[in-house]
C-alpha cells in the first residue's frame, strides 16, 4: 500500500512541476494576478460572489487563450473566498454562503476591537487550508479520473441524482424548499430543443429559446439581480455599519496558538465535503464551527458567541478547503457541485473542452497549469490581502446606491454579452425576479443552479444508458457503483425522519 | 392547522404559481410533436418526471406553510415581525432594467446602461439627480470603452459609441 502511495505521488509530481513552469510564464502570471485582484474585489463587495464575477468575464473566452482565462477564473474563485471573509467580519453582511458562519464570531470580534486578529486568522487560515487542499486536489483528481474512465452512463446518472439529492436536501431551512428549488432548475434546463430528437420543449414558439436558456444568464440573474431586488424590497428596514479596523491585521502568539488546530481541522472537514457533492460550502463551515465550539475548553469556550477566534479560523479554513475540494469532481467527473464550479464548467465548455475522466489525458498541460496556478494564486492572495487590508476595507465605504447600480449594470452586461442576445436579457429579468422570490420565501438558490446545469446532462446519460441496454431499465441499477450510490441516497433520505421518530419515542419513554 | 400569517399567504401564492408552472410543463410535454424515427427514450419521459417533481414540491411547500412553517426570509431572524416588501423601490428597479432591455439595441449601450444605472441608484436613495446622471454616463462610458477596446467584446453601438471607437482607434 505504501509502495503504491509512493508511486501515485511520483506519477503526479512530474506533470505538476510542468504545470508550475507553465504557470510561471509571465503572461499567465499576469492573468493570475488580475484574477486574484478581481476575486478579492468581488469578494469584498457585498452582493457579488465568485459565480457572478466569473460569469461576467465569460465573454473573454472568445478572445483570451484557454490556459490564461482558466488561470484567471481559478484565481477569482480563490480570491473571492478571501475577500468574502473581510466583508463578513467588518460588515456582518456575508457576500457568499461560505462566509455566513465567519460573520457570527468574526463580527463580534470586530465589535470588540479585535478585527485585526479576526482578519489575520481568516487570511492565514485560508492560505493554509488552500495550500493543503490544492495539494490534495493534485493527488486526488487524476486518480479519481482514472477510476471514472470505466464508469458507464448509468453510473454517471446515479452520480448526478446523488448530487441532486444532497444539494437539494442539505441546504436551506427545509428539505422540501430545496427540492422545489431543484425542480425549478430542472424545468429551466428543459427549455429548448431536445438533444436527441430535436423536439421543441417549452419554447412556446419563440425561436430564440430553441438553443435553451443560457446557464450563465441564469446564474448572473439569480445571484446579482435577485439579490439587488431582494435588498430593494428590504431597503427601508436594513442599515449597515462598517466596523473600522484598529491597528494591523495581525495575531498575537496566543491567538496563533488558538488558531492553527482549527485551521487543520477545518481543512480536514472542508476538503472531503467538497469532493462529495454536499451542496457547497454551507455544510462544512457550519460543521467546522460546531466542532470548534465542542472542542473549545475553559475561557475559550465561554468566548463562543462573543467573538471566539476558533469560530473564525475553523470555518474559514473549511470554506477554502471546500472550494478546492469542489474542483475534484469538476475536473475528474465533469460534475459541478457548487454554483461557482458550474460557471467554471461553462468556461471550459466555451473552449470545447469537456471536463471529465479524459481531461487529464486530452488536456493534461492545461489542467496542471491550472492546478499549479492555484498554488501561486493562493500565495499571492496572502501577500495581497493582509498588508493592504486598509485598501480593501475602503471598498466597503462605496455608497450603497452606486454599489447596487454598478452590480446591476455588470449583471445586465454579463447576461447580454455572451450571445449578444436581447432574449437572454429578458430571461435575466424573469430569473432575477424568481431569485427575489426564492430569497423572500427562504428557498435555497444553489439547487436551482445545479438543476439547470445538470438536468440536461442527467437526461443525456439516462438516454445513453437505455440505448446501450436496448431499453432495459435494469441497467440503471446495474453495477456496484450505482447500487451503492442509490443505497446511500435511501439512507440519506430515510435516516433523519427515522432519527427524529426515535428521539421522540425515547423522550416519550423517559 | 394554524392561522396562516401575512407572509405565509404570499408564500402560498408563490407555491401556487409554481404548481401552475408544473401544469404548463405537463401540457407542453403532452402536445410535444414526437420524432418519426423510433427512439428508445421518448423526449416526453424526462419532462414528465420534472413536472411531477415540481408539482409534488410545490404542494409540499404549500402544506408546510399551512402547518404554520412559512419560510423565514434570508437575513432575518425567525421572530422578526412581518415586513411589507418595499414595492416602490423594487418597481423603479424593474422599470429601469426593463428600459435597459428595451433601449439597448435601439440607442446603443451607453445610453441604455446609463439609464438603468441611474434608475437603480435613484431607487436606492441617491438624492442628487444630476450628479447621479453624470456619474451614470461616465460609468457606462468607461464600461463600454474597457469591454470593447480592452477585452474586445462588442456591445451595441449608436452615435456616442461610434464616436468613442473613433477616438479609441
Can I get a quick summary?
Chain A has 510 residues and is mainly alpha-helical. Chain A contains 21 helices and 2 strands.
One letter per element, helices H and strands E, the order of chain A comes to HHHHHHHHEEHHHHHHHHHHHHH
Q: DSSP helix count of chain B?
A: 5
Main sheet specs of chain B: none
Residues in β-strands, percent of chain B? under 5%
Order of helices and strands of chain B: HHHHH
Spatial arrangement of strands, main beta sheet of chain A? 1-2
What would the principal axes of the Cα set say about the shape of chain A?
A: globular
User: In angstroms, what separates the terminal alpha carbons of chain B?
Assistant: 70 Å
How much is the average pLDDT of chain A?
A: 85
Query: Which class best fits the helix and strand makeup of chain B?
Result: mainly alpha
What sort of overall outline of chain B do the alpha carbons produce when their principal axes are compared? Answer: flat
Q: Residue ranges of chain A: pLDDT <50 for 5 or more in a row?
A: 1-7
Beta fraction of chain A: under 5%
Question: What percent of residues of chain B adopt helix (DSSP H or I)?
Answer: 55-70%
Q: What is the domain tally of chain B? A: 2
Helix content of chain A: over 70%
Total count of helical runs of at least 4 residues of chain A = 21
List keywords for this structure.
heterodimer; A: 510 residues; mainly alpha; two-stranded antiparallel ribbon; 2 strands; disordered N terminus; B: 169 residues; 2 domains; 69% helix
What does this structure look like?
The complex is a heterodimer of chains A (510) and B (169). With 510 residues, chain A is mostly helical. Chain A has a domain at 2-149 and 252-419. Helices cover 74% and strands 1% of the residues of chain A. Chain A has helices spanning 2-23, 26-44, 50-57, 66-91, 100-111, 115-148, 153-170, 175-190, 215-233, 253-275, 282-295, 298-303, 310-333, 339-350, 359-362, 364-385, 389-395, 400-417, 422-440, 446-468, 480-509, and strands at residues 192-193, 200-201. Chain A has a two-stranded antiparallel sheet with strand order 1-2. In chain A, helix 4 packs antiparallel against helix 6 (115-148), helix 4 runs antiparallel to helix 13 (310-333) and helix 8 packs across helix 20 (446-468). Chain A starts with a helix and ends with a helix. In chain A, 60% of the residues are buried. Chain B has 169 residues and is mostly helical. Chain B folds into 2 domains: 6-66; 87-168, no CATH class. Chain B starts with 5 loop residues before the first helix and ends with a helix. The relative contact order of chain B is 0.09. At the A-B interface, helix 8, strand 2, helix 9, helix 18 and helix 19 of A face helix 1, helix 2, helix 3 and helix 4 of B.
Amino acid at each position: 500500500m505504501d509502495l503504491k502511495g509512493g508511486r501515485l505521488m511520483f506519477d503526479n509530481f512530474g506533470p505538476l512541476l510542468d504545470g508550475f513552469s507553465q504557470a510561471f510564464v509571465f503572461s499567465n502570471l499576469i492573468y493570475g494576478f488580475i484574477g486574484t485582484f478581481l476575486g478579492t474585489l468581488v469578494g469584498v463587495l457585498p452582493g457579488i460572489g465568485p459565480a457572478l464575477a466569473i460569469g461576467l468575464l465569460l465573454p473573454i473566452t472568445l478572445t483570451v487563450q484557454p490556459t490564461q482565462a482558466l488561470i484567471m477564473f481559478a484565481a477569482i474563485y480563490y480570491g473571492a473566498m478571501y475577500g468574502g471573509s473581510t466583508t463578513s467580519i467588518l460588515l456582518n453582511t456575508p457576500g457568499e454562503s461560505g462566509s455566513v458562519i465567519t460573520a457570527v464570531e468574526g463580527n463580534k470580534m470586530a465589535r470588540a476591537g479585535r478585527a485585526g486578529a479576526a482578519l489575520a486568522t481568516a487570511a492565514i487560515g485560508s492560505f493554509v487550508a488552500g495550500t493543503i487542499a490544492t495539494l490534495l486536489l493534485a493527488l486526488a483528481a487524476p486518480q479519481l479520473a482514472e477510476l471514472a474512465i470505466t464508469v458507464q452512463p448509468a453510473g454517471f446518472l446515479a452520480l448526478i441524482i446523488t448530487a441532486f439529492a444532497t444539494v437539494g436536501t442539505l441546504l436551506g431551512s427545509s428539505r422540501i424548499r430545496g427540492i422545489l428549488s431543484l425542480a425549478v432548475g430542472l424545468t429551466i434546463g428543459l427549455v429548448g430543443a431536445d438533444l436527441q430528437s430535436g423536439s421543441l420543449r417549452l419554447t412556446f414558439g419563440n425561436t430564440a429559446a430553441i438553443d435553451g436558456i443560457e446557464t450563465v444568464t441564469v446564474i448572473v440573474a439569480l445571484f446579482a439581480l435577485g439579490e439587488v431586488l431582494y435588498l430593494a424590497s428590504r431597503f427601508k428596514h436594513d442599515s449597515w455599519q462598517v466596523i473600522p479596523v484598529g491597528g494591523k491585521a495581525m495575531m498575537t502568539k496566543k491567538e496563533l496558538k488558538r488558531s492553527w488546530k482549527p485551521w487543520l481541522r477545518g481543512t480536514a472537514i472542508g476538503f472531503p465535503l467538497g469532493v462529495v457533492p454536499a451542496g457547497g460550502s454551507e455544510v462544512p463551515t457550519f460543521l467546522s464551527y460546531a466542532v470548534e465550539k465542542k472542542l473549545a475548553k475553559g475561557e475559550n469556550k465561554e468566548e463562543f458567541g462573543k467573538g471566539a477566534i476558533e469560530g473564525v479560523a475553523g470555518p474559514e479554513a473549511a470554506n477554502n478547503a471546500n472550494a478546492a475540494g469542489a474542483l475534484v469532481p469538476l475536473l475528474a467527473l465533469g460534475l459541478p457541485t457548487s454554483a461557482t464550479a458550474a460557471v467554471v464548467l461553462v468556461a471550459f465548455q466555451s473552449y470545447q473542452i469537456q471536463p471529465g475522466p479524459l481531461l487529464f489525458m486530452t488536456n493534461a498541460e492545461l489542467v496542471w497549469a491550472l492546478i499549479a496556478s492555484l498554488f501561486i494564486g493562493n500565495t499571492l492572495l496572502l501577500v495581497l490581502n493582509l498588508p493592504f487590508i486598509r485598501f480593501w476595507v475602503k471598498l466597503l465605504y462605496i455608497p450603497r446606491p452606486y454599489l447596487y447600480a454598478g452590480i446591476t449594470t455588470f449583471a445586465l452586461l454579463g447576461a447580454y454579452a455572451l450571445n449578444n442576445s436581447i432574449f437572454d436579457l429578458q430571461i435575466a429579468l424573469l430569473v432575477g425576479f424568481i431569485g427575489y422570490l426564492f430569497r423572500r420565501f427562504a428557498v435555497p438558490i444553489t439547487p436551482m443552479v445545479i438543476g439547470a446545469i445538470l438536468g440536461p446532462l442527467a437526461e443525456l446519460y439516462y438516454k445513453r444508458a437505455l440505448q446501450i441496454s436496448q431499453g432495459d431499465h435494469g441497467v440503471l441499477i446495474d453495477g456496484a457503483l450505482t447500487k451503492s450510490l442509490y443505497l446511500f441516497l435511501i439512507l440519506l433520505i430515510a435516516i433523519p425522519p427515522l432519527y427524529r421518530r426515535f428521539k421522540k419515542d425515547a423522550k416519550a419513554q423517559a | 392547522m394554524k392561522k396562516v400569517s401575512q407572509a405565509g399567504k404570499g408564500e402560498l401564492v408563490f407555491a401556487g404559481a409554481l404548481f401552475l408552472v408544473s401544469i404548463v410543463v405537463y401540457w407542453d410535454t403532452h402536445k410535444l410533436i414526437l420524432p418519426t424515427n423510433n427512439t428508445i427514450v421518448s423526449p416526453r419521459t424526462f419532462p414528465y418526471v420534472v413536472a411531477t417533481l415540481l408539482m409534488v414540491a410545490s404542494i409540499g411547500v404549500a402544506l408546510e406553510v399551512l402547518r404554520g412553517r412559512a419560510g423565514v426570509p434570508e437575513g432575518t431572524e425567525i421572530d422578526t415581525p412581518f415586513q411589507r416588501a418595499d414595492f416602490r423601490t423594487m418597481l423603479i428597479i424593474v422599470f429601469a432594467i426593463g428600459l435597459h432591455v428595451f433601449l439597448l439595441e435601439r440607442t446603443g449601450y451607453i445610453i441604455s446602461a446609463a439609464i438603468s444605472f441611474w434608475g437603480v441608484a435613484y431607487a436606492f436613495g441617491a438624492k442628487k439627480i444630476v450628479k447621479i446622471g453624470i456619474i451614470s454616463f461616465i460609468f457606462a462610458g468607461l464600461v463600454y470603452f474597457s469591454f470593447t477596446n480592452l477585452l474586445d467584446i462588442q456591445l451595441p453601438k449608436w452615435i456616442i459609441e461610434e464616436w468613442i471607437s473613433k477616438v479609441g482607434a
